Amino acid sequence: MATKPFTYDISRGFLPGHRACAGCGQAAAVRMVMEIAAPNCVVTNATGCLEVFSTPYPESAWGVPWLHSLFENSASIASGVEAALRKQGRLENTRVLAFGGDGGTVDIGFGALSGMLERGHDILYVCYDNEAYMNTGVQRSGATPYAASTTTSPAGRASFGEDHPKKNLPAICAAHGIPYVATASMAFFADLKRKVRKALGIRGPKYIHVHVPCPPGWGYPEKDTVEIGKLAVETGLFPLVEWEDGEVTRVRKIKRLPVEEYLKPQRRFRHLFRTEEGKAKLAEIQAIADSNIEKYGLAG
Amino acid sequence: MSTSQASNRRKPPFAVVTRPGSSLRNKTGPWGIQKPVWDWEKCTGCNTCEAICPEGCIRHLEKKQYEADYDYCKGCGMCAAACPVNAITMTTEHR
Amino acid sequence: MRKMIEGSRAVAEAVALCRPDVISAYPITPQTHIVEDLSQMVADGQLDAEYIRVESEHSAASACLGAVAAGSRAYSATTSQGMMLMIEVLYNIAGMRLPLVITGVNRALSAPLSIWNDQQDTMGIRDTGWLQLYAENSQDALDMHIQAYKIAEDDRVLLPVMVCMDGFVLTHTYESVDMPEQEQVDAFLPRYNPLYRLDPEDPYTLGAFVGPEAYHEVRYVLQQDCLGAKEVVKEVARDFQKAFGRWSGDVIDTYHCDDAETIVVALGTLVGTLKDWVDARRAEGQKVGVVKLRCFRPFPGEELVEAVSGAKQVVVLEKAVSVGAQGIVASELRSALYGKATVPVACSFVGLGGRDITFDTIDEACKRAGDGETEFFAGLRTEVLEEA
User: Fold this and answer.
1) How many Å from the N-terminal Cα to the C-terminal Cα in chain A?
2) Do the domains C2-244 and C252-387 sit in the same CATH topology, yes or no?
3) Does residue B3 have a pLDDT over 60?
4) Residue B93, exposed/middle/buried by CB under 10 A (0-12, 13-18, 19+)?
5) In the complex, which subunits touch B with 3 or more CB pairs below 8 angstroms?
6) Considering only residues 72 to 101 of chain A, which have any Cβ-Cβ distance to chain C shorter than 8 Å?
7) Is the CB of residue C207 less than 8 Å away from at least one CB of chain A?
8) What kind of architecture, by CATH, is found in domain B28-91?
């Protein structure tokens, strides 16, 4: 097929040539967010996979003004950017977005995020949650799910992996009483884009927590990123919820698939399928999903 | 730069700023061996492949026609796996 | 206009005269009066600035970083533990070449906890790439802030500047200062015109990841520009004198050094005490002089060598300890003198954690230096050590 050459305009915000792993859920999610947000925006970015794979000097995959400083201060530098744009009269036409991974958001950047939300800055914070410190080699974070094996919460003869449930950061953000909080998944791209569009239409602090499967970190074939993402939602382990002014206003109903369908294809959970004790853990994980289904009314 | 048209000013210090979209020089196509090929007869035009591509290198030509830019496609196969009508085949014989 | 005001107030008014767009700070003693005064000015509508009340010093520095990257003039102030929490961001601001100005109020470091003055905090961030100016009195502190923005924002510099002022000794004492008029400051310091900023019309990437193929060169350029900033500090001091009619030194200042046999080197308010001490001892016939190290970063090695080479001995009074090594200023001065002059340099640690530095302390330091000691603590209270 002889077709005209491909061209890429920086107005799309996020461009090819970045160095994300093949099948990266985060890169896909960033594209979806930028499709809505670009070009009239400024992005701040915490240290992590996204920052490293998108800006190895002298290359940048960004088509919008983009600022990286440190691991834990994406929300703080965004606060300063927002204040400066307001003072300069540029905030009317420019959206400020702050990006971070789960480590940079749920753990080390948690205080900075809370401060940003509490102060009422007109910023959309997007957390790309791949459930561990992937950039440094799959170490456990506060967003790592129960019983997942990571390099610092490894499964072994005396351990079933991570021994605490995933921190519910979206609910904590909602507890700040901010106008809009949502969870989303890159596997439900229309839903994610709708939420980004909705958030950018609201003035004030907004938070979107996006589930982004990671082929090397979770241990599944890279082609299956969308499928794995869908299963996390359809089992009830990653509920898609929206909060407005602190109250749940909308959820996505699910098929209520058994959690094994989501867990079994992933290397990080395979130890659960090898022993009787592991099966008991599977029951505990099913209980977490059931609790989510009950709490948010996910059953269709 | 927009804020300083005067030519007598120095350039930004070395490596402090990077030009937008300069990643385009990094052709990631050679990362993968298999590439997606579309069967436009089967394609329904649902746009899933374009929407989920982590590279952003799939384009919509017409109603039910898509194609990938093999200069950047890493061959992950997400598009083929996610296509609801199996209109995409991953193959090494794509040229 | 002359007025009798607190040092913190003088700094707050000077900062306001510089018209910062964004202020972000976190309260910590004894920096508080500065940021309280600025908050009140914003609350009263006297100062048109965005004031971001952050949840930590790390975020204060970060918010300022974001504001400057977006093209605004920004300001913060901190001290001691707060400065330690900022350190990661301070390196980052310098590396990103963002011309922020921060007041570094000088206070001891914990443990043990102390809110009192010494200079261990600002000395501890000397390798960050920030320029550092040390104020002798309130007028100096006031003037330095106006000069600091001019230096930092110069295209040849593009580095952050910290104006260091001794906690309580300066921040909480009242002195008569000459406060410039807004028109004078506006003429001296035009609105910030950034060389680059975050702008969707011209969307640059700031803060890229740099590999071994270029990082070495990035650091080289940073070092060259920081060293080169010395000439800009001098130039701005001269321009300031022309505009405001005051001179308090550029990178260093000297007091009775021409014929001095003993020259004492110090930073900050201690210089004022030393000038009185020089007057007193010269009245007794002792040939002593003082070098005020006004700009510590970049380090004015050549100027110091020229100032002290004719003396028989140099005594550096240090309000900071590089624990496990030597006095910081003394070792840098010795290094500058190496191969150029043979004057001996002694280091006396003084006034840590707010201990008063009296004429007796200074006399003790000079005597022990004359006796051949090279590194020692002056003014030690033996009864306290014995009790322990």
Assistant:
1) 45
2) yes
3) no
4) exposed
5) A, C
6) 72-73, 75-88, 94
7) yes
8) 2-Layer Sandwich (3.30)
Measured CA to CA, the distance from residue C70 to residue A80 in angstroms comes to 8
Separation CA B63–CA B61 (nearest Å): 7
Q: Which CATH class is domain C2-244?
A: alpha beta
Distance CA A121, CA B16 (A): 27
Segments making up each domain of chain A, as ranges: 10-296
CA distance C200 to A37: 12
Kindly provide the ipTM of the predicted complex, given to two decimals: 0.97
Residue B7: pLDDT band with limits 50, 70, 90? low
CATH 3.40.50.970 assigned to domain A10-296? The reply is: yes
Contact B18 C158 (CB under 8 A): no
Q: Domain limits of chain C?
A: 2-244, 252-387
Structure confidence by residue, pLDDT tens digits, C258-289: 999 999 999 999 999 999 999 999 999 999 99
* Of the candidates A149, A14, A34, A30, the residue with the CA atom closest to the CA atom of residue A95: A34
CATH topology of domain C252-387: Rossmann fold (3.40.50)
Contact B13/C at CB under 8 A: yes
The whole-number average pLDDT for the span B24-30 is 97
The per-residue pLDDT for range A35-92, each reduced to its tens digit, is: 999 999 999 999 999 999 999 999 999 999 999 999 999 999 999 999 999 999 999 9
Under 8 Å between Cβ of B21 and A8 = yes
Q: How close is the nearest chain A Cα to the Cα of C201, in Å? A: 8
d(CA A57, CA C205): 10
- Summarised one tens digit per residue, pLDDT across range C208-236 is 999 999 999 999 999 999 999 999 999 99
